[in-house]
Amino acid sequence: MRQELMSLPKTLAEDVARNLVMVAKLLDDEPEQAYQYARVALRLASRVAAVREAAGFASYAVGKYSEALAEFRAARRMTGNSDLWPVMADCERGMGRPERALAMAGEPEVQKLDRAGQVEMRMVAAGARRDMGQADAAVVTLQSPELASHSIQPWTARLRYAYADALLAVGREDEAREWFAKALEADQGGTTDASDRLAELDGVEFVDALDPEQEADDGLKPVAEPKVEEAEVEEAEVEEAEVEEAEVEEAEVEEAEADAEPEADAEPEADAEPEADAEPEADAEPEAVEPAVEELQSDEEPEDAEDEGQDDDAEDSAEDVEPTKAEARSEDQAGLPEKDGDDS
Q1: Is 0.85 surpassed by the pTM of this model?
Q2: Radius of gyration (Cα) for the chain, nearest Å?
């Protein structure tokens, strides 16, 4: 690449180099920005093979497979080597043409690839088989001496991961778990998510303990959490307990309000009559009650006598009054002049 850039003017070469450096720096973490830098470099130096290759990988990272395939073909024409053959076949898969990718796996260019390139081509062919609904054939395609080797190569983790994923697709879960574990053992650079796939098979979910949105006490909880079903059951139990507690509190409040209503409604009587004499207790003996009754009767007799005397005096006064009224009427009649006969 350096020799190709040296053919450009110094200022232009520096600008192109800076953009290519940014593409390499952002390609894994921020592919969209890497794609923008690649487009700038492509406008500045479209006749440089390294620029076309970088633009192809940037387009491939953001899913623009048609653009990527065009850039890879241009770079291959400029250089004449077949190193980009596997990724070109994968672009065919991305464009929905797995049969073309499978056909490319049988081309003579594959024999020109190094061992890493041939392993990559085998994984692309297995993916094309799965795209075509041939899951069992994909498992067979990945079975190779490189898969059985115990040596760790840069492509070992990815090959084992692809094989484990193919086994899982055909329902061989126990074998898939074994190969995911082998992929994790070989994945020293963290290029795969084999650990997450293992946890998924074991029914365990992982939470990012460094997530700033979580509460502070969440950092004390274990990283592994139970299955979704168990979490939902626990949440339902907590909600049910809260509902029961709320119902108990509501019942206590209603009971307290019911006890307080008579006191609030009752109004003090201004002219409260004295309470009647308390009745004798039921357990009181009859001998104790009868003397008290006789005393009450004896006390009431004089009052009756006095009432009778008052009634006699009232009758006498009435008799005295009646003659007086009669005499008054006779006197009035005597004083009136007698009527003369009819003058007419």
Answers
A1: no
A2: 57
Pairwise CA distance, residues 33 & 301, whole Å: 122
**pLDDT tens figures, 198-232:** 999 888 765 655 555 654 455 544 444 444 455 56
Beta-bridge partner residues of 225: 205
Structure token pair of residue 336: 């009136």
| Rounded distance between C-alpha atoms, residue 295 and residue 307, angstroms | 19
CA dist., res. 77 & res. 74, Å (int): 5
Give Cα 205 to chain centroid, integer Å: 17
Locate 14 and state its tokens. 């520096």
- The contacts found for 225-231 with CB under 8 angstroms, 24 or more apart, are 227/203
Residues with Cβ < 8 Å from 81, sequence gap 6 or more? 112
Phi and psi of 225, rounded to 5°?
-120, 155
The contacts found for 69-76 with CB under 8 angstroms, 24 or more apart, are 69/95, 71/42, 74/49, 75/49, 75/50
Please tell me the distance from the alpha carbon of residue 72 to that of residue 340, in angstroms, as a whole number: 164
CA 233 from chain centre, in angstroms, equals: 14
Q: Are 49 and 75 in contact (CB under 8 A)?
A: yes
Structure tokens at 16: 């192109």
Q: In terms of Cα–Cα distance, which of 54, 69, 62 is closest to 33?
A: 62
Give CA separation, 294 vs 81, 159, 290, in Å.
140, 121, 6
